[in-house]
Amino acid sequence: MKALYIAASGMKAQELNVEVISNNVANMRTTGYKRQRADFQDLLYENQRRMGTQTSDTGTIVPNGVQIGSGVQTVATTRIMSQGTASQTGRELDVAIRGEGFFQIERPDGTTGYTRDGSFARSDTGQLVTNDGYTVLPGVVIPENSRDITINNQGLVQAMNDAGQVVNLGQIELARFVNKAGLEAIGDNLFLETEASGAPQVGTPEQDGFGGVKQGFIEASNVDAVRELSDLIAAQRAYEMNSKIVQAADQMYSTTSNLR
């Protein structure tokens, strides 16, 4: 009896589904987090009577046939890259992206990571960095005597010096990808380029299709609590139904073994 194995595959799939939902809920307050969705595929089929086969010498064919499935498998955990809500913070080094693009971050090993988390800070050398101390590329240095720091919608960073003059301190650039859902999440609010994502295209905010940036804001998670709750209920019910099938198959096995 294959029902046990089919139902077991359904329980395993829904267990993973709940894990994905729980990670979304856990990151509801994570800046720039993008929710995931579990995607499933049916497994191979056993053809006990193939549709389209002839049943007589006169050419009569089977219209439907008999196929028995083998269950379900998880094929992907798709990341939904929709825009999160902009949350005002008032901090002069907080920056939110409105539209397409990712901030470029230099990791300790020299590789480039990508993030939507624009909660930046200033290092002891004046470098614009992330909360983990990673440099924001292509590099912006804010001198110690700088005041009234401004970041316009095109990512130009300016400040006033001791002489009361407004000086340019650097330019924040964004990167975008043909398939941004193909980026690899590595934690720390960072993504890495993959073959699936394609090579990054770097440009200036609000130019050539790139989104703009907004000073004093950060992008909140795009997790919808109501949707996650409804998905969780559906996953629980699906898991419960598969467990009922396991119980039913076990009872049928028991009945068969007790036949006299």
Automatic annotation (TrEMBL):
Entry coiled-coil feature ranges: none
Flagellar basal body rod protein N-terminal domain location: 4-34
First-listed, main subcellular location of the protein, grouped into a coarse class: other
Taxon lineage: Bacteria, Pseudomonadati, Pseudomonadota, Alphaproteobacteria, Hyphomicrobiales
Keywords: Bacterial flagellum, Cell projection, Cilium, Flagellum
Any GO BP: bacterial-type flagellum-dependent swarming motility
Protein species of origin: Pseudovibrio exalbescens
Name of protein: Flagellar basal-body rod protein FlgG
Subcellular location per the Swiss-Prot or TrEMBL entry: Bacterial flagellum basal body
Annotated Flagellar basal-body/hook protein C-terminal domain residues: 214-259
GO cellular component entries: bacterial-type flagellum basal body, distal rod
Family named by the database record: Belongs to the flagella basal body rod proteins family.
InterPro entries xrefs: Flag_bb_rod_N (IPR001444), Flagellar_basal_body_rod_CS (IPR019776), Flagellar_FlgE/F/G (IPR020013), Flg_bb/hook_C_dom (IPR010930), FlgE/F/G-like (IPR037925), FlgG_G_neg (IPR012834), LlgE_F_G-like_D1 (IPR053967)
Location of the Flagellar hook protein FlgE/F/G-like D1 domain: 96-159
Keyword Ubl conjugation set for record: no
Pfam families the record matches: Flg_bb_rod, Flg_bbr_C, LlgE_F_G_D1
Quaternary structure annotation from Swiss-Prot or TrEMBL: The basal body constitutes a major portion of the flagellar organelle and consists of four rings (L,P,S, and M) mounted on a central rod. The rod consists of about 26 subunits of FlgG in the distal portion, and FlgB, FlgC and FlgF are thought to build up the proximal portion of the rod with about 6 subunits each.
Xref: PROSITE patterns: FLAGELLA_BB_ROD
